[in-house]
Amino acid sequence: MLRSIPRNRILVGLGCLLVFCGILYIHHEPSISSICLCQDNGDWKIGELKMQTGVKYAQPSRKIGRTDVNSVTNWNAPLVWEGTFDPVVIDAIYKRMDPRVAVVLFAVGKYTRFLKGFLESAEKHFLVDFRVTYYIFTDNKGDVPPIELGEGRNISVITVPSAKRWQEVVLGRMKWATIAIDKQIRNEADYLYMMDIDSVFHNRVGAESFSQLSAVLHRGYMNNKRADFPYERRPKSKAFIPADEGDYYYTAAVWCGYLEDMYKLVKYCYTQSEEDAKNNIEAVWQEESHLNRYLLYNKPTKVLSAEYLWSDYDPIPADVRVVRISQLIKNYEEVRPNGGH
Ligand SMILES: CC(=O)N[C@H]1[C@@H](OP(=O)(O)OP(=O)(O)OC[C@H]2O[C@@H](n3ccc(=O)[nH]c3=O)[C@H](O)[C@@H]2O)O[C@H](CO)[C@H](O)[C@@H]1O
Ligand SMILES: [Mn+2]
């Protein structure tokens, strides 16, 4: 058949087809870029709380809830405890939003030993079915263990220098995370967690932790008077808080929020600690002190109870019904480059 059509006709036909495809492509391009626009960096917000029809869950009550703990702050933000949310409802709402979650983890020096336990337990309990990338900052790539990850979950390894003092590592987290967000993470994530590596997940940590900026009550000080919080008390430090101020004492071992809000706070801790260094002072609990000052004057939009970071050192009180993450017992002398506390 083809042979009976003159060659020049075929060529003209092919030419027309190419031009037509070209026009289609050009015409199509704006709609491709408009799809990308909705995923623009820093744009992800919790937004509308939509849920599909047919989800079965217990009816929420106007009267029955936790009475043994406070579940709302005095700036009207949720204070999250077991029993203040229904995981079925939370998941039905938030899985539709499908944010790209980044977790910043440091494992420098001997702390690489904690990676396996942390990551394996996170795969069982942390934002199951969500898209999660663990960013592992380490001075020893070779010690990052192979871990079986769920679908949509990744590990990205970032090299950082070794340190002679543990204080250098904990503060350095703010510097290296600032740089990595600028260079890489901002293009890959909508939501960010900063976490200590020396812990293990025991129960669900899910989308109930999502908000613009969420912080966790430090288990060790949740019953203290504000004057006894271990805030930085020396006015010379940028992290200074006077004795008669304060809401809660938050841990720096778990905090999370929208990518850009977290970036602002991580960078704040970094630049404030640099200022301190210029003035020959280091805040009493390093980045945790700067974090606490920031959160006193820029209230978190959600407070997570100490369920979100307990410790194997401490007995569990009755009002902590679920331990979600627990810090491991560790030999500070042995694991840190310059020994103890
Ligand atoms: C529960 C809690 O409130 N934890 C905080 C507390 O101490 P912690 O005693 O929990 O501090 P830590 O020894 O776990 O150090 C914090 C984190 O830094 C990393 N790391 C540290 C040292 C090192 O040599 N290599 C390394 O990778 C690692 O991810 C570790 O989990 O105080 C620290 C600052 O003083 C941080 O504010 C921690 O978040
Ligand atoms: Mn720790």
From TrEMBL:
Main location class: membrane
Any single GO CC term annotated in Swiss-Prot or TrEMBL for this entry: Golgi apparatus
UniProt keywords, alphabetically: Glycosyltransferase, Manganese, Membrane, Metal-binding, Signal-anchor, Transferase, Transmembrane, Transmembrane helix
Membrane topology: Single-pass type II membrane protein
Keyword Transmembrane helix: yes
The keyword Membrane belongs to this UniProt entry's keyword annotation: yes
Residues annotated for an alpha-L-fucosyl-(1->2)-beta-D-galactosyl derivative binding in this entry: 218, 288
InterPro entries in UniProt: Glyco_trans_6, Nucleotide-diphossugar_trans
Binding residues for Mn(2+): 196, 198
UniProt-annotated binding residues for UDP-N-acetyl-alpha-D-galactosamine: 106-108, 111, 196-198
Subcellular location: Membrane
Cofactor annotation remark: Binds 1 Mn(2+) ion per subunit.
Active-site residues, record numbering mapped to chain: 288
GO function term, MF aspect, one: metal ion binding
Pfam family, one: Glyco_transf_6
Cofactor(s) it depends on: Mn(2+)
Gene Ontology terms describing biological process: carbohydrate metabolic process
Similarity annotation: Belongs to the glycosyltransferase 6 family.
Record's protein name: Globoside alpha-1,3-N-acetylgalactosaminyltransferase 1-like
Organism: Zoarces viviparus (Viviparous eelpout)
